[in-house]
Structure formats: structure tokens, C-alpha cells
Amino acid sequence: MEEADIVVIGGGSGGSAAAGRLSEGGKYSVAVIEAGGRNTSLKTIMPGMMPFQSDKTNWRFETVPQAGLNGRRGYQPRGRGLGGSSAINAMLYVRGHPGDYDEWRDLGCTGWGWDDVLPWFRKCEHNVRGADEYHGDDGPLWVSDQAFAHPGSRAFIEAASRLQIPVNDDFNGPRQDGVGLYQVTQKGGERWTASRAYLSQKRDTLEILCDAMVERILFEDGRVWGVAYRRDGQAREIRARRAVVLAAGAFQTPQVLMLSGIGPGAHLREMGLAVRVDRPEVGEGLQDHIDYTAAFETDGSLFLGRSPAGTIKSLGAMAQWLFTRRGGMTSPYAEAGGFVRTEFAGERPDVQLHFLIAIVEDHGRAKVKGHGFSCHACVLRPESRGTVRLQSLDASAPPRIDPNFLADQRDVEVLKQGVRAMYRILQTPPMADYKGRDRYPIDLADDAALERLIRARADTVYHPVGTARMGSDAGAVVDPRLRVRGVDGLYVADASVMPRLVGGNTNAPSILIGERCAAFVAEDLG
After folding, report:
1. What are the pLDDT digits (tens) for 19-67?
2. CB distance 262 to 282 below 8 Å
3. How far is Cα 437 from Cα 370, in angstroms, rounded to an integer?
4. CA distance 238 to 5
């Protein structure tokens, strides 16, 4: 039988960080089991290839029909292969608000307050701006400024500033409020995934098994001892001598737990599974950033789009990138944005904006002729809660995902104000000078019409968390050291452990969780 000291399930953002740190120094042998491939192609490395992903790199999940979205199914892209979602995302490096982590601490996540996590964020980071009170410059995760931002992105920032919204050149610095260009997880013009950051060094202590689908975690007498998986059509097992770290993401971590007999007893029995550990909150507490996208058509080809001129410009940008790693193909598309407050906000901004230099319809899947721009507004701290459940005993089948979007009217009210704030910016010079034609014009003062439009078009902005909640109470799935309650030696290292959604993009916090999990495992094993 194959064996290692520590088996890590999933080579995504949290799993890469955990495996990379645990395999350092030669003390432990670590095996990573990843369902996808190595993600080393130009589609991953060239930032501008982000819209052109395939089933090899994206699970392409869908939700169940959402009552709050007029019965529509939502799209839930999730990264597949080494790097996980850091291999297909917009590369924005955002930690969230310091108050988010203090809230975690106050909810019973001892050791997760802002003062606790800031040193770990600094440890992760190699920021091209250098080290300071908020940033590190010698970590494995490269964080870069955008050197080739589109003039439309700068116009968005200028328009917001004319409305007295402060310009902020560091959303991870002293304050989060304001608008600016996002920093990105890139190195030298290339996408810098979590796997490139943590798993690129060859080590005798590290083995990576790609194209291997985990089927269940193996444990006996309350102690984990291995992992069952399938590779090349064959059922296999690997023994974990010391620990197993589960990092399959907010959807597949609860799926793997439930397939292993760890989860809500009634649901497991309904699926014909033996209840090994009755843990009702596995798959509960799903939170995600519900988001509305406005889209505008423009004349000319300044913005990106589908036209003969657009094709020529794109080919030129690709050639420039191939030879220099510079130019338009370094773009994350969502170059600019920021954090604003509605009347419902407390001490933290409650809406995030992402300005895109192209028309985006149906998550970029719809082919739209012509040129233009888009802008997202999302609810940073939604009150709606959803679930993840099994719909098959086949580990390769998608789980049943129900975010329960806009079930709580408070989310609708925040989003309406966020959309109005976004439109005020877009209707202010120099953005207004582009004379964008709104693809979905309504009277924004008509409250009912705006709610109808939101329910007809809103969807995720790709930040699911919370389905294996961390806490000090008996109901929490993992304790503050990320240990699964009821199974010794089993840890979780991904966004599923977040007790509350952070006010921002979730990739940087997921990497932080992987880093901290590695430290907890090493301390526990001695």
C-alpha cells in the first residue's frame, strides 16, 4: 500500500499552502491527491487566458434552481487541478477587512483575530512594493501591481473620486474603503497560482498524485488512517501515518466528509450511508457573495470585445506577452474596483465593486458582439444561508449546491443600494464620456423595477465559504486549530472553515488558512 506521513486531499489554494509548508525541512513525507491535472499550460500561466477554461481546469458546477433568482440555476465555477481556483480566478489579492477576523475571534475562533492573522498574511506574501507593517516581501505568494492597466479602469477611479469616494492604492493596508486598482497574484507578468507558490520545488518529501479522485477518508476507532481514491480506473488506498488534511473546497470538502460517513445523520441515512460521525453542520452555513453585473456597449474598440479590430488587438497582445510577458494579456479584466458603504453598513464597507474592461454576460460564457465594459456590485456580508448535500454516492458527481441566494430580503436591500452607487460612478465623467449604452436600462429610482432586474440577473461572484464551520462550540465542524471534531488526525484547510464570509475576495484568506493548518499539524505532531 502507498503511504505517507501526511496526505493532503486537494491541491488548490489551501491544500497547496498546507502541503508546501509541511513538506519543507524533510521532517514529514507528504502526498497530495488532486482530481485534476498540473495546470502548467499557457491557459493557466497567461493571465489574459482566464475566460478560456475547459472542463480540465474548471468543475463548472451549477446550483439547484434558486427561488430568489426567479428559479434560475446559478453557475458555480471552481478550479480543478493544481492551484485550484487560483488557477482560473481573476488573481485579485484581497484579504478582507480586519474586522472580519475580529468577528471570527468573537464567534469562538480563538487565535483568528486580526492581530493573530496579520503576521501570517505577511509570511505568505512576496509583495513587489516591499515589506512594511501590513505586507511581507519574502513569502512564496507573489503579489504585484498592474503595470498595464486599461485607461477605462483609470477613468472609473477618477469618476469615483469626483464623487468624493477616496482613492485607495492598497485595499490591504490601513483602510479598505475607497476605489483603486487591485493588486494581483502574478510574478513577472505570469499568473502565480498557489501551487506555483508552494509546490513548484521538487522535494524527496513531496509526492503529487494528479488525476486522482478521492472517494472517502478512511478512519477506525475515531482515528484517521488513510484515503481511498480512484486513479486510472482503479480503486486505490493510501495510508496516512500521521494525519490527513482535507482541502477540497467549500463544495467538495463537505461532499468528501459526507461520503466518508461524517455529516448530518438523517441525510447520510437517506443516501444509504452508514453514519460514522453524526455532525449536523457539515454542509450547512453556505455563504456566497451575491452579485449584480451591469453591462454597457460602446463605440470603437478601446474596450475589449468581439470584432475584427478586437481580434487583431488580442492577437497582438498575445504575441507581446509571449515575447515579453508584458501588455494587455497580463490583465485580470477586473482591474479596478473598491469598497463602498450603503446606509446599512456598520464599521465595515458592505458592498464591493469590480470594474471590467469588457462586456460580461453569463459569467463570460455568452458571446457578445461589439465592445464595452461591465461593473459588478456584490453584497459583502449576506444574511442568506444555503447548504451543500450529496446527490450521488459517486465522488466524481457534483454535490447538490443550494446557496439560497436572496432568501433574506436584507441582502436585496443592500444590493439595490450597491447597484445605485455603482451607477452613480458609471454616470460621472470621465466614465460618462465613453457614452456607454446600458444593456438593461431601467429607472433606478423605481424600487420594484430594480429588485426585479436584480432577481433576473444576479448570481455569484465566486466566493463560497462556511460549509465546515470553525468554532469553539460543540456544533462546529472543526475547532480553531482546524481539527475535525470526532476524528483524530483529520484537519480541514480551505474556505469551508470560515464561520463568516470575509468582506472581499476569498483566495488570499484560503491560502492563509492552508498556511495556518500546516503550522497546527506540525505543532500537534511534534
Report:
1. 999 999 999 999 999 999 999 999 999 999 999 899 999 999 999 999 9
2. yes
3. 12
4. 10
Fill in the DSSP letter of residue 48.
Answer: G
Active site (annotated) includes residue 463: yes
Name the β-bridge partners of 339.
Answer: 178, 352
Domain 1-90+185-288+386-401+464-526 has CATH 3.50.50.60: yes
Nearest by Cα to 421 from 172, 176, 165, 177: 165
Q: What tens digit of pLDDT does each residue of 470-515 get?
A: 999 999 999 999 999 999 999 999 999 999 999 999 999 999 999 9
Q: Which three cell numbers stand for residue 330?
A: 497580463
> Cell 446550483, residue?
63
Global confidence as pTM = 0.98
Query: Which DSSP category does 398 fall into?
Result: P
Of 241, 218, 247, 220, give the one whose Cα is nearest residue 482.
247
Residue length of the chain = 526
Selection from 96, 60, 74 nearest residue 405 by Cα: 74
Domain limits, the chain = 1-90+185-288+386-401+464-526, 147-181+290-379+407-457
| CA max distance for the chain | 68
CA distance 478 to 282: 10
Write the pLDDT tens digit of every residue in 330-360. 999 999 999 999 999 999 999 999 999 999 9
How many Cβ atoms are within 10 Å of 362's Cβ, its own excluded? 12
**CA distances, 276 to each of 183, 482, 525 (Å):** 44, 19, 24
CATH fold of 147-181+290-379+407-457 reads: Cholesterol Oxidase; domain 2 (3.30.410)
Kindly give the interhelix angle for 409-426 and 447-457, rounded to the nearest 10 degrees. 100
Contact 310, 304 (CB under 8 A): yes
Task: Give, as one character, the DSSP assignment of residue 53.
Answer: -
**What is the residue type of 135?**
H
CA distances from 76 to 47, 79, 148 (A): 20, 10, 29
What SS3 state is found at 164? coil
